[in-house]
Amino acid sequence: MPDPLQNSAQDSSPADADAPVHLFEVAFEVCNQVGGIYTVIKTKIPHIIEHYGDEYTLIGPYYADAAALEFEETGPDRDWMRTLADKIPGLHMGRWLVTGRPRVILIDTSMYRERISDFRFFLWKDHGIDTASNMEADLDEAILFGFATSELFELIQSITTDASLPVKRVAHFHEWQVGIPVIRNGRSRRPIPTVFTTHATILGRYIASNRSDFYEVLDSIDADAEAAGYNIFPRFGIERAAAHSATIFTSVSHITGREAKALLGRAPDEVLPNGIQITRFQAMHEFQNLHMKYKERIHDFVMGHFFPSYTFDLNRTLYFFISGRYEYKNKGFDLFIEAMHELNQRLKKRTNPPTIVSFIITKAAIKNVNVTALENQARFDDMRTLCEDIQSQMGSALLTAAAHGHIPALNELLSEESEVRLRRSIQAFRSKLLPRIVTHDPVHDAEDAILRHIRHRQLFNQADDPVKVVFHPDFLSAHSPLLQLDYDEFVRGCHMGIFPGYYEPWGYTPLECVASGIPAVTSDLAGFGSYAMENIMLSRSQG
User: Fold this and answer.
1) For residue 213, is it within any domain?
2) DSSP letter, residue 438
3) What is the CA 429 to chain-centroid distance, rounded?
């Protein structure tokens, strides 16, 4: 990559050519999991720290709920940070609770909300971006965070004599939500060299989700007209201006680079494919053991979810899944459901087919965990606890009998009281209802695209359906009362990930599957799929 410091407005000379550089990295997903950018940043942190050491600071918005899980507030740990804390309201300084524990500054945008009208005015007056017709909350957040961050960098660049902050500085920004500081930087008296990375264009997301010929017509699209038609012109304007204002403009794949050139009017200076922190997946000979371990955990959920209604052979059951941001067509949820419907029809024609449990994992608007799904898991947990107690009692009775030289019958080991308790537990576990296709109560049940498609294809989890469907509209967590697994653990326990994305600028999900030793299906329209096709010497017959 060209050195963004070469054209910097900051003073430099051959004498300080090897001087340290402080890297600032700015994104909405710092300490705030929303989508793939969270993974991009989180997984590269150890390598960034290896290169920059303590001269690395992440900047993002402050959201109390997310920060409570991932952020440790320690206050300023350098003089320049104390200067910022004294002069700028709403700053939370500390460490991100991930590998490497990088320094983080989170900005509470609520402290700036009364200035939103002024910020909108300056965005129009200084940059020609009219936001009057769009009052959506996500745009307001981007404007508030953008101007607050601009003021932050203006103050940072005014600090020229503080030995705790190197004179050389670079700021890396991810996506349109943090594009305003890149645009405003050009008006600064002391501009900082900037890198702006697009992981997907805002306009591309909209068009691709509504047109099946997006890539065929890409070079002939009237970007301004399309942005106005989708009522996203302010966001599109911010993204385009940031791409043109940045010292260095990058994208994550050649597919996205082509899209950026056509829609934003600037080709990336560099294409930087997303990487993955491979050390967290390294298990070598443990791959199979980990798969068995986490598959058993998925078995537990499946028994709790399906077995109250009917049972099937878990030894002849496969677990497939799709996951990603809730973009129904772009991420391929529509094709996944169609594929499961077709597979269900084909397997029904076979004698004694295997069972396929297909999971759909994404984040949707939900009210809460469904009560029935929760009760089923609770009853299954109660049954397991009871069985463990009975197992312990029977073990003691068996040992006593063996010590007497006697091999007891089963009814001698199981006390009458235990048998009654077990029968009651089994009876309480049974249900006449079909297993639910969704684990939570969606806010918009009737309008949810995934649920509508599942219902259209009548994938209702009937007993004679070889293919079962479980729609889990929330992030996975080991602390969940349902699937008590983190995402990485869940992936290891499955048999295949399926990601037929139509619009996927990179695509971490298949990469994570492969790194976990799990087969994955992806698309050559995805950045990772395209990269694999171009760089891995495999014939089509090899996969």
Assistant:
1) no
2) B
3) 35
Q: Mark 254-272 as b/e (b = at least 16 C-beta within 10 Å).
A: ebbbbbbbbbbebebbebe
407/308 Cα distance (integer angstroms): 34
Residue 290: CB atoms within 10 A of its CB come to 17
Looking at the structure, tell me whether residues 316 and 398 fall in a common domain: no
Distance CA 508, CA 515 (A): 10
- The total domain count for the chain is 3
Mean pLDDT for 171-184 is: 97
> Residue 286: which CATH number?
3.40.50.2000
Burial of 91 (0-12, 13-18, 19+ CB in 10 A): buried
CA-closest candidate to residue 53, choices 7, 12, 76, 21:
21
Q: Where are the beta strands (DSSP E) in 370-503?
A: 440-442, 467-472, 496-498
**355 in any annotated domain:** yes
Tell if the pTM clears 0.70, that is, is over it: yes
Residue 178 and residue 238 in contact, taking contact as beta carbons nearer than 8 Å: no
Mean pLDDT, range 111-117, rounded to an integer: 95
Q: How far apart are CA 482 and CA 352, in angstroms?
A: 29
Task: Reply yes or no on whether the pLDDT at 275 is more than 60.
Answer: yes
Residue-wise pLDDT for 407-442, tens only, equals 888 777 888 888 899 999 999 999 999 999 999 999
3-state secondary structure of 347: helix
Q: Is the pLDDT of residue 49 over 80?
A: yes
Find out whether 485 and 493 touch, Cβ atoms under 8 Å.
yes
Q: For position 540, what pLDDT does the model report? A: 54
CA–CA gap between residue 272 and residue 274 (Å, rounded) = 6
